[in-house]
Design brief:
Elements lengths: L1 H8 L3 H11 L27 H11 L1
The structure holds zinc ion.
The site of zinc ion has 8 residues, from loops.
């Protein structure tokens, strides 16, 4: 159960690259170790802690 929860909550850099490729958008903002939307700590190379934060951040930044 924990593995499923983690998979849903934690994005990784590879997942981000695939999403960006599908959306055909460049990765404009560098990762800094914190979620760009809510400030949670994230893994190296990742900019958001969840898909929800990524979506909300994009809505604010378009
Ligand atoms: Zn977040």
């Amino acid at each position: 159960m924990d593995d499923i929860d983690n998979a849903q909550i934690n994005m990784d850099a590879e997942m981000e690259r695939r999403i960006a490729a599908v959306r055909n958008k460049p990765l404009l903002v560098p990762a800094n170790g914190c979620c760009l939307f809510c400030g949670n700590t994230v893994k190296e190379g990742v900019r958001w802690c969840s898909l929800e934060c990524r979506d909300d951040w994009e809505l604010r930044n378009e």
